Amino acid sequence: MxxxxxxxxxxxxNRSYVTFESKRVFEYTSSHIFEKYKxxxxxxxxxxxxxxxxxxxxxxxxxxxxxxxINNISVTRGSxxxxxxxxxxxxxxxxxxxxxxxxxxxxxxxxxxxxxxAVKNVDLFKTLYEAxxxxxKEPIELRVFLCYCSEDSDKAEVLxxxxxxxxxxxxxxxxxxxxxxNWETKIQGAIxxxxxxxxxxxxxxxxxxxxxxxxxxxxxxxxxxxxxxTIFMIPARxxxxxxxxxxxxxxxxxxxSDDGDERLKSALFERAKNLNIRIKxxx
Length: 283
What we know:
By secondary structure, this protein is an alpha/beta fold. It has 9 helices and 11 strands. The protein has helices at 31-37, 42-50, 95-100, 124-130, 153-166, 173-176, 183-193, 211-223, 260-274, and strands at residues 2-7, 17-21, 52-57, 66-76, 79-86, 116-120, 143-147, 169-171, 196-201, 233-237, 253-254. The strands form 2 sheets. Strands 2-5-4-3-1-6 form a 6-stranded mixed β-sheet, covered by helices on one side. The radius of gyration is 22 Å and the shape is elongated.
């Protein structure tokens, strides 16, 4: 599913919001989809916010389209306001390329001649990827590796769920290693593919020998290759404990403090911003 927004107004998508007359909302939308979303309540809004969006101009403009996301939907008398972000991770889509894909994107003949908002039952990323217009067939997520010792697995799982709710893709060995897989190879590969590593620290983990130290060494080696100032390694204290010498140069966060969660969240958003990766709004 994706949202299709069409406007004739020049530079409309350079702003952060757009307003449609109510009668133009869900035009050119299949009847079964219209019936599902015609009442914009908290549930339907949440679903619509989860869909990627294609922000386009009416055909006569011959201007590029952009991929983006809805952040908020406000209903007023006679109109609907959409707050949005353009996702600059992805390139713009040329008007002529969009025209060639109209059938695959379920865009009706004449639809691009009218300002409106439609919802289409099409996989936007897959369609654009197969047309070689973007390099990813699904939305890019901030990938976070969670490093912890087995004694802290319960606390780590709580953190895993919290991070997942923030809208990031968390690599957690209890969930991501299948029976029979080479866990050492999988873990090392996951660290290398991650945008950020969170190292869970406790009185147990800082004194423990074993593979957790190997994970840490791999992460530190990768962090040392990053440009100065890059947020890649975040030591996260689960309790009051010593921070290993190898991590002292990184600012840590105390997850047991009142502002710990907010500080960690800020670091995640800063890393995502630097990579042009969108993190979905938090409920």
